[in-house]
Design brief:
With 137 residues, this protein is an all-alpha fold. It has 2 domains: 1-56, no CATH class; 59-136, AhpD-like, CATH 1.20.1290.10. It has 7 helices and no strands. It has helices at residues 4-21, 23-32, 39-53, 61-75, 78-90, 95-109, 111-130. Helix 1 (4-21) packs across helix 2, helix 4 (61-75) packs parallel to helix 6 and helix 6 (95-109) packs antiparallel against helix 7 (111-130). The longest helix has 20 residues, at 111-130. InterPro entries: 4CMD/NDH-1_regulator, AhpD-like, CMD-like.
Length: 137
């Protein structure tokens, strides 16, 4: 849709998405989702999740990120979990806070989900350290 409201939500969502998960990632995601078939989904995600939910008051970006880590663990969405581990660090979550959120998820979502979440997070945090995007420990 191309109404002023949709344009505004998309613009706000696009900026928030870049802030949380990084400009390079967003550019790649939008490029992958640029087919006529995929474009509506990318537009919907940018408007609804990023333009409406992530821009709301009431929770910090850090807290929203930690919630996403737990929900993505529960859902077993490992690619998205990796993306949001990166976002959590960008939003100020510490390695300890990420670990504790994943431990909490492990207790309620099951050990196999927790183990995979830890593997994903450890890999992403290691990659971020190698790139100088964070210091672990």
């Amino acid at each position: 849709m191309d109404t002023p409201l949709h344009q505004s939500l998309y613009a706000q969502g696009y900026e928030m998405r870049k802030k949380v998960i990084g400009e390079d990632y967003v550019a790649k995601a939008l490029e992958k989702g640029s087919s006529d078939f995929m474009r509506p989904l990318q537009q919907f995600a940018t408007e609804s999740a990023w333009g409406t939910i992530w821009t709301r008051p009431g929770l910090s970006l850090r807290d929203r990120s930690l919630l996403n880590l737990v929900m993505l663990t529960a859902l077993g969405k490992w690619i998205e979990l990796g993306t949001h581990v990166r976002g959590a660090v960008r939003n100020g979550a510490t390695e300890v806070e990420i670990r504790e959120a994943l431990l909490q998820a492990s207790a309620y979502c099951g050990m196999p989900a927790g183990m995979e979440a830890f593997r994903v997070a450890d890999r992403v945090l290691g990659e971020m350290q190698e790139k100088g995007e964070m210091v672990r420990g």
